[in-house]
Amino acid sequence: MKKTEFILQDLVSKIYQGAFPTNKLPTERDLASYYQVSRYTVQNALKELNAMGVIQAKHGSGIYVTPDALNNPLVFNALTRMPYSEIQNQMIYLKQRPLTANELQNFDIRNDDSQPQLAWEFLRRRLSHYEVTELERTVMPVRLFPHLDQAAVEGSIQQFVQSTGHRISHYITTYQTRLLTREEAQHLATKRQPAMIISNRCIWENSQVYALSENVAINYAVTYITPFNQQSLAYRMSR
């Protein structure tokens, strides 16, 4: 494990264990001395924590844990650890096509034989530091989103959805691995290799599924920090 990654995970662990009672972290110099690394390495770890919203620097005062950081389970991966401004979406295609039977069921839409229900389907590359890291294929019903264009696809789909007046409730996410197809490998500019497939059902507050997406990611890693559920353990042990 790289030193920056180790410091990042160790600091997150200490933050969630309450190792800093005043929510103020040691200085960069003290952290560099503690971890026996350069201040540059410490700064890189702190930069990632800041991008994730876990810490914030107050000029002339120090580095503090953000107030909301401890209220929710933390999940971070290669993309959430990077400022959104440093992530680019590049559209490969955007098209309309009929919804499949499986998609109609997922979106809870009844097909009309006289006028088939249509879907937007788009494929986009996600780049970080100008390097392609993910492919995302997303399907959205045209009846829910009559207007979708390249600007929306290359921007934030979440912002686009909320701009239509709907509030996003949650995502149901599934992770699995498989070998890249030749087409995927070409779009990712890599050889065929195992990749992480991240499937999402995207849901509004009224329980309506508004999008189905599949992300294909290479060199993917994700870290979860969740509180231990003692009651759940007691229930399982009693069965």
Could you give the count of β-strands? 10
Based on secondary structure, the structural category is alpha+beta
What is the topology, as strand order, of the major beta sheet? Answer: 4-5-6-9-8-7
Mean pLDDT: 86
Under the CATH scheme, the architecture of the largest domain is 3-Layer(aba) Sandwich
Short description:
This protein folds into two domains: 3-70, Winged helix-like DNA-binding domain superfamily/Winged helix DNA-binding domain (Arc Repressor Mutant, subunit A, Orthogonal Bundle), CATH 1.10.10.10; 84-220, 3-Layer(aba) Sandwich (Chorismate lyase). It is 28% helix and 34% strand. It has helices at residues 3-16, 28-35, 39-51, 101-107, 150-153, 157-163, 182-187, 230-238; strands spanning 55-58, 62-65, 74-77, 87-98, 118-128, 131-141, 168-179, 194-204, 209-217, 222-225.
Question: Could you describe the 3D structure shown?
Answer:
The chain is an alpha+beta fold. Strand 1 and strand 2 form a beta hairpin. The longest helix is centred in the N-terminal third of the chain and has 14 residues. Helix 1 packs across helix 3 and helix 2 crosses helix 3. The strands form 3 sheets. Strands 4-5-6-9-8-7 form a 6-stranded antiparallel β-sheet. The chain has a two-stranded antiparallel ribbon with strand order 1-2. Strands 3-10 form a two-stranded antiparallel ribbon. The radius of gyration is 21 Å and the shape is elongated. It has 2 domains: 68 residues, Winged helix-like DNA-binding domain superfamily/Winged helix DNA-binding domain (Arc Repressor Mutant, subunit A); 137 residues, Chorismate lyase, CATH 3.40.1410. Helices cover 28% and strands 34% of the residues. Keywords: DNA-binding, Transcription, Transcription regulation. InterPro entries: Bact_HTH_transcr_reg (IPR050679), Chorismate_lyase_/UTRA_dom_sf (IPR028978), Tscrpt_reg_HTH_GntR (IPR000524), UTRA (IPR011663), WH-like_DNA-bd_sf (IPR036388), WH_DNA-bd_sf (IPR036390). This is GntR family transcriptional regulator.
